[in-house]
Each structure stands twice: as structure tokens, then as C-alpha cells.
UniProtKB/TrEMBL annotation:
Keywords: Membrane, Transmembrane, Transmembrane helix. The chain crosses the membrane at residues 33-53, 65-85, 118-140, 160-178, 190-208, 228-250, 270-293, 313-340, 352-369, 375-400, 420-442, 462-481. Residues 1-26 are annotated as: Disordered. One of its GO terms (cellular component) is plasma membrane. It holds the Pfam family Transp_cyt_pur. Signal peptide: none annotated. This is Uncharacterized protein. InterPro entries: NCS1 (IPR012681), Pur-cyt_permease (IPR001248), Uracil/uridine/allantoin_perm (IPR045225). It comes from the Eukaryota.
Length: 502
């Protein structure tokens, strides 16, 4: 039975180009995520190969083990604040990220931030799926892996065999994606304890084989004080941008939370689980030096070295589960909802997810993963310049300008007199602040990818702190422009459809 607020909402004259079942506010019957289930979501997200890579890369670049863990934990504690703040409107109003973006960017302007977020999600979807394909490749007989089809083809950028494994894993994921949010919730709920168990087994194995963690604990920093700080800030930015994607579209999940308390408790799992998994990644990676005589930072290669048919099958199951839980929740929901928001009459969540998967192939993830340098400091730091200003503009609009009061009716209306119609459906202040927040980061990015040979040192510093710079510059600029225009009075809106969630 639908709640009274849902019945009232159905009675409203919503524009059909702005709403369908995937964009409609959730009712009380759909609020099923408890704090434990929200925390379980983070277990499934954190335990994965990219998180493992990220931890090891800091030590590879010269940090000590404790400096690497501290960098990761500090980054995720910082990120926890925008994560919880952005999750609040999702729980209070039951709206997804694309609908929330309408309040700050305009009814039509919301397509800009949602499609930028979708683009990053498609790239991540391809990266995670490629790693899953590597796991399948590991199971293949040695004769096949050494055949002609395993040799790289120049125009493809990889071997036909590895590409076939990638496509196999790509197809396998679609079965879960096809079940929608209910399937994702069940997957995350039941996979969390399995992933914790398998991660514990890997940690115990490394401890026993290496004779303790003494080797890891003996890893000291290879950096001078000045070298550490020059590495710390871009590493902090990279770690923040690692989950800045979810911090942006977290309303897609918190709209299903039972209460604000549940969403806050659930979000607190991020720094806890990320710190714990970082320790596992560093401990296991450092133990490989003692066990095998050389450092193996790639967990898939490590599992291939452990040997034993049963161990390999169990390992591949664990890796596949970790990849699927991360990939579907982090990299399918946002792009799918963005495409639904683009054309609710044509796109459904399933169609959006399918297009996301197709675009993941177009990103050619095997090229993005060519080196840890390109993965961490080009991919992660680079896209943080896009997501930082979007997040700050939305938070400034929701908390400082509108005082957390939104008109649900106007979020689904193309009425020129609506609160979020602005100029033809676009909020030029938000779009301008977004552009100005991104522009100063571009020279540093162009130097990083090799297009520019040299840029002034100031642009390098800005790029190394891309998320911080773009987040604060865009947010402050938007607040000033909006206050000057008098938008601060919009917080007087009183919406009769507020769900009974504070």
C-alpha cells in the first residue's frame, strides 16, 4: 500500500519528460536500507582490486607502510563529510542524484553534472570489468595462454584472448544488473560477509607464510621531508577522488534508507573499511617479498602464484564477487540514472545500465591500466576536477541557499514560474561556477598527459590538489553569485510532500 505522501505526489501534474518509476521519490515501503545494510554496501565497494592497487602504489612511490595507511584514512575521513551531507536530501526527500541536481543546476541544466558523473562511471565500469577478465584469463590452461591468440595486437592494444575474457566477464555482469536496485541490495547484503571471510583468509595466509608482519612493519619511508609532502597532497587528492564519484551520487542509495540515522551510520563504514583493507593490501604485498623473493603488487598475479586448483577457483570467485559488488553499485547506478534523467520516456534503469556497459568497452580500460602512474595521477586526479565543483555547488545550494528545503513539485515541473526553471531550465550561475572551477586545472592535466611539455609551477600545484581547488573555488563563487542575485530567499519554500524523515 502506497504511503499518503506518495498518493499526493501521484496527484501532481508532473511533466512526463521529467519522471518515470526510476526518478519518482521513494515512498515509505521502499525505505528498506538499514544502517547495517548501508555499511554492507561499503564492504562490497571497498574490497576490490583497485583499492588494493591504490594502497600498494603509495608504498611503491616511497611512503612507509603507516604513511600509506594514514594517507588513505585521512582522505576518506575528509570525504565522509560531503558524503553524509549529500546523502541527507536523498533520505529526506526520496530523490535520486539527477533530480537533486535540478535544484542547483536547473531542470534542464542538471543533465550537465549527471552526464559528467556518468562518463566517469562508464570509465570505471570498463576498468573493473577488465580486471574481472584478467581473473578469467588466470583460470585458462597454460597452453591457451601461450598460444597465438594471447599475443597483443597493435591496433587493439591488447591480445584477442584477453579481450575475449574481458567480454565474457562483461556479459556475466549483465544478469545481476538486469535485476535493478533490489538485486543490487541483495547482492551487497549477502556478499559482505563472504568478502570479509576471503580477505581474512588471504591475510592469514600471508602472515603464516611470511612468518608475521615484521617485513611490512620494517618498511620505512624512502622520501625526504620535502619529497613526502610533494607526494602527499596529490596522493590525498587521488584517494579522495577514488570515492568522490559515490560522494556525488550517494542520494541514489540513501533515498532507500529508513532514516537519517541509518544513512549516517552506514556512511561511517567508508573510512573504517577502507583503512582496514589498505592494511590488508600493504601487509599481503610486503609479504610477497619474503615468500616469493620479489614484490607482487597485483592481487590477480599473486593468486596465480599461490597455486592449487581449488585455491585458484576460490580466489577467482572472491575476485569476481568483489569486482561485481563494486562495479554494479559504484559504476552502474549513477550512469543509468543519468540516462534515465536525460529521457525518462525512453530510458529505463535497464536500458541505461546496458548503454553504460557498452560505453565501458569504448573507454579501452586496458590502456588506462598500463601503469600505476596513469591510473592514480592521471585518471583519478584528473576526473576529481570534474566532480569536486559539482559536489560543492549542490551542497552550497542545498544547505546555504535553500536551508535544506526543496519543492518536490517544482523538481518535476517545466513551469517557467517554478523554483528551478531559472533561465530556460538552466541555472547560469551554477554552470558558470562549474566551468570556472574546472578551467585552472586543465593546464596541469594537459602537462600530465603529455600534450603540454611545460606549465608554470602554480598550475602543477593546482592540478595536484585538483579536488580541493575546484571544490572550494566553485562552491564559494556559486554562493557569492547566488547571494548577489537574491536566491537566498528560496529557502522559504514550504513543500507539503515532505516524507516523514527529518
Amino acid at each position: 500500500m502506497a504511503s499518503s505522501s506518495q498518493l499526493q505526489f501521484d496527484d501532481l501534474d508532473s511533466d512526463p519528460t521529467l519522471i518515470n518509476d526510476d526518478l519518482r521519490p521513494t515512498n515509505s515501503d521502499q525505505r528498506t536500507f538499514s544502517g547495517l545494510e548501508m555499511a554492507s554496501l561499503w564492504v562490497g565497494l571497498v574490497v576490490g582490486v583497485p583499492s588494493y592497487y591504490l594502497a600498494g602504489s603509495l608504498v611503491d612511490l616511497g611512503m612507509s607502510w603507516w604513511q600509506g595507511i594514514a594517507t588513505v584514512v585521512v582522505a576518506n575521513i575528509i570525504l565522509l563529510f560531503p558524503l553524509v551531507l549529500t546523502g541527507h536530501p536523498g533520505t529526506r526527500y526520496g530523490i535520486p542524484f539527477p533530480v537533486l541536481a535540478r535544484s542547483s543546476f536547473g531542470i534542464r541544466g542538471a543533465h550537465i553534472p549527471t552526464l559528467l558523473r556518468a562518463l566517469v562511471g562508464c570509465g570505471w565500469y570498463g576498468i573493473e570489468t577488465w580486471i574481472g577478465g584478467e581473473a578469467i584469463f588466470l583460470l585458462l590452461p597454460k597452453a591457451i595462454k601461450e598460444s597465438l591468440v594471447s599475443r597483443p595486437v597493435s591496433w587493439l592494444g591488447t591480445s584477442p584472448l584477453e579481450f575475449a575474457c574481458f567480454i565474457t566477464f562483461w556479459v556475466a555482469q549483465l544478469g545481476i544488473v538486469w535485476k535493478g536496485m533490489d538485486g543490487i541490495r541483495e547482492l551487497e547484503k549477502y556478499s559482505a560477509p563472504i568478502l570479509i571471510f576471503l580477505t581474512s583468509c588471504l591475510l592469514i595466509w600471508s602472515y603464516v607464510k611470511a612468518g608475521g608482519f615484521s617485513h611490512m612493519l620494517s618498511l620505512s619511508s624512502r622520501l625526504s621531508s620535502s619529497e613526502f609532502w610533494s607526494l602527499f597532497f596529490p596522493s590525498l587528492t587521488a584517494n579522495i577522488s577514488f570515492w568522490a564519484t559515490l560522494a556525488l551520487n550517494i542520494p541514489d542509495f540513501t533515498r532507500y534508507a529508513k532514516s537519517q540515522r541509518d544513512q549516517i551510520i552506514g556512511q561511517s563504514g567508508l573510512p573504517i573499511f577502507m583503512g582496514a583493507f589498505t592494511f590488508v593490501g600493504l601487509a599481503v604485498t610486503s609479504s610477497t617479498k619474503v615468500i616469493f623473493g620479489n614484490v607482487i603488487s597485483n592481487p590477480i598475479q599473486l593468486l596465480g602464484q599461490i597455486g592449487g586448483v581449488f585455491t585458484k577457483i576460490l580466489s577467482i570467485f572472491g575476485i569476481s564477487l568483489a569486482i561485481v559488488t563494486t562495479n554494479i553499485a559504484a559504476n552502474v547506478v549513477a550512469p543509468a540514472n543519468a540516462l534515465v534523467n536525460l529521457s525518462p520516456s525512453y530510458f529505463t534503469f535497464r536500458k541505461g545500465a546496458l548503454l553504460t556497459a557498452l560505453l565501458g568497452i569504448a573507454f579501452q580500460p586496458w590502456r588506462l591500466l598500463q601503469s600505476s602512474e596513469s591510473f592514480v595521477y592521471t585518471w583519478l586526479v584528473g576526473y576529481s576536477a570534474l566532480l569536486g565543483p559539482i559536489g560543492s555547488i549542490i551542497l552550497v545550494d542545498y544547505y546555504l541557499i535553500r536551508r535544506a528545503n526543496l519543492s518536490i513539485k517544482d523538481l518535476y515541473s517545466l513551469n517557467p514560474g517554478g523554483a528551478y526553471y531559472y533561465s530556460g531550465g538552466y541555472n547560469l550561475a551554477a554552470i558558470g561556477a562549474l566551468i570556472i572551477g574546472i578551467l585552472p586545472v586543465i593546464p596541469g592535466f594537459l602537462q600530465k598527459v603529455g600534450i603540454l611539455s611545460r606549465v608554470p609551477n602554480a598550475y602543477t600545484i593546482i592540478y595536484n590538489n585538483a579536488w580541493f581547488f575546484s571544490f572550494f573555488s566553485a562552491g564559494i563563487l556559486y554562493w557569492i553569485i547566488s547571494s548577489f542575485k537574491g536566491n537566498q530567499n528560496s529557502h522559504q519554500l514550504k513543500d507539503p510532500l515532505l516524507p516523514n524523515i527529518p
